[in-house]
Amino acid sequence: MNNPRPATVHRKFNLRRWFALVSLFTITAISGMAGTLLSWFMSERLLLQEAVLTKEFVHSLFRVEKSLHAYLLDPSAGIREESEEAFRHIAAMPNVMRANVYGLKRSVIWSSDIQLIGREFGPNEELDRALAGNAVVEFDSDERIEHGKAEHQGRAKLEDAFVEIYIPVHDPDTHRVLGVIEFYKNPRALLTSIRLLRTYVAIGAGLSGATLFLALFGLVRRAARVIETQQRRIVDNETLAVIGEMSSAVAHGIRNPLASIRSCAELIPLGDDRQIQEAARDIVAQSDRLEVWVNDLLSYTRPIAEAETPVLLNPLLQRCVLDFDREAHRRGIALTCSCAEDLPAVRGDSMLFGQVLRSLLANALEASESGGSVEVHGRRDDEDSTVTISVEDRGTGMTKAELARAEKPFHTSKPHGMGVGLVLARRVVERFGGRMKIESAKGRGTVVRISLRVA
To answer: Which of 256, 227, 273, 198 is nearest to 36 (CA)?
Structure first.
C-alpha cells in the first residue's frame, strides 16, 4: 500500500517554467547537432571539390607526360629531366605549399622538399586509402600536432591551417595504382569560405532555435493562461454550487428546530408546571441539536491544522469506545474494541483523530439495529509502516449509489444529519498522509478502514 503525501506538500505544476526548461534544452541540443552536421557536410563537400579539381589537373598532366609513369614504375632508374620539370609544375600549382610523390613501397620518391626524398614514414591511414585507389582529402592545422603523422616534418614551413590531398596515379593500360601524389595546400579562399559557412550555419541554427523556442513558448504561455482562467472559473462554479448546497442544507436543518423552539416558547405562558418543564427540555434539546449542526458545519469549512504530533492509538480508541458504550447499551448493540497492544504512535492530531473516530462510531451505531454489533480493530502493517483502524458494523449497509452519495458533502440519509461527517473524516485523514476506504453492501453492513503513517 502506497502512502500518499499530505495534500499541502503537492506543489502546483508550473507549465510555463517546465516547458521553458525542457524546450530550451531540447531545442538547443537539436539546433547544435543540426548545425554541426550541416557544417561538417558542407565543409566536406567543399574540400572534396578541391580534391576533385586537383585530381583532374594531375591526371591531365600525366596523360601528357608519359615519362612520369615510367618513373613511378621504376624509381631506381632515376628521374628524367622532363619528369623533374613536370613534378615542379605540379608543386607550383596555386596554393600548394608542399608536394610529395610516394611509390608503391610507401617511400617518398620525389618531394618539393628535397630533405624528404627517400624517406619512408610510419602509419598513414590516408596514404593507405590512396594506394588502394581512392582520392583522400583531410583538413588539418598546426594546432593538431597530436595527430602524430611522421611526414609532417618541417611543419614550421606550413601555414596554420592547410588541406592534405592524396591523389592516386593509375597505369593508363592496366589501371592499377602506380603511386600517390600528396599535396599540402592552403586554399585561402576555400578555407575562408568554410569558416564563414560555419559561422553562418551557427548563427542560423541559433536564430532558428530561438525563433522556434519563442513561438512555442508564446503558445504555451497563452494556453497556460487559458487553463488558469478555466480553473478559476471551475473553482468559482464549484464554490457557488457548494454555497448553494450548504444554504439549502442549513435552511432545511434549521427550519424544524426553530419551529419546535417557537412552539415550545408559545406554550410556556399558557401551560402548567409539567408542560413548562417539557417545553424547556424541548428547547434545550433543539438548541443542542442546532449547536451540533453548527459545529459540524464549522469543522467542515475551517482549515485543518497541519502540525503533526505522535498520537497513541490504544488509549484514544479506548476513550472513544467508552464514550459510546452507554449509547450502544441503550440501543442493544454490542460494541467491542480489539486492538494489538503494540500499536505504535501515528502522525497526526489527537483531537482531530478523536473527532474522526467518534463520527465513524456514531454512523455505525445509527446504521445498526438492536441485537447488532459494532467492532473496532487496530493492527500494524510493517510492510509499508502504517497502522490500519477499521470500524465495522452489521447494519443495513449501502448500495453503490448510496455509497457514492455518502462521499459528497451535505448529502445524508439521516433525519438529523448534516452530511459532513465522512467528508470531514476523509479530509483529516488525508491531510496527515493517511487513507480512508469505505466498503459497504446492502444488508451486509459497512466497514471503514483508515490507514495512518507510523510516527
So the answer is: 198
Q: H/E element holding 386? A: strand 386-393
Eight-class DSSP state of 454: B
Mean pLDDT, residues 82-97: 81
CA 379 to chain centre: 37
DSSP string, 58-123: HHHHHHH-THHHHHHH-GGG---HHHHHHHHHHHTSTTEEEEEEE-TTSBEEEESSGGGTT-B-S-
CB 167 within 8 A of CB 181: yes
Given a contact cutoff of 8 angstroms between Cβ atoms, the answer to whether 455 and 344 are in contact is yes
Place of cell 461527517: 421
Residue 346: count other Cβ atoms within 10 Å of its Cβ: 26
What the block records as the C-alpha cell of 355 is 473527532
31 residue type, one letter: S
pLDDT, one tens digit per residue, over 299-312 is 555 555 556 778 88
Long-range contacts (CB closer than 8 Å, 24 or more residues apart) made by 403-407:
403/438, 403/440, 406/438, 407/438
Q: The pTM is what?
A: 0.44
Q: What does the angle CA 291 – CA 294 – CA 299 come to, to the nearest 5 degrees?
A: 125
CA dihedral 280, 285, 287, 288 (to 10 degrees): 140
Determine what percent of the chain falls in helix, strand and coil, rounding each to the nearest 5.
55, 20, 25
> Which three cell numbers, joined as nine digits, stand for 29?
541540443
What distance, in Å, lies between the first and last C-alpha atoms of the chain? 17
Element (DSSP H or E) covering residue 426: helix 421-431
Backbone angles phi, psi at 51, to 5 degrees: -65, -40
Grid cell for residue 207: 536564430
Interstrand relation of 334-339 and 373-381 (parallel, antiparallel or unpaired): parallel
Distances (CA, A) of 256 to 57, 285, 361: 112, 12, 26
Q: What is the mean pLDDT of residues 175-202?
A: 84
For the ranges 39-48, 118-127, 150-159, 197-206, the lowest mean pLDDT is seen at 150-159
- E-assigned strands of 117-205? 136-141, 161-170, 177-185
CA-to-CA distance for 446 and 398, rounded, in angstroms? 7
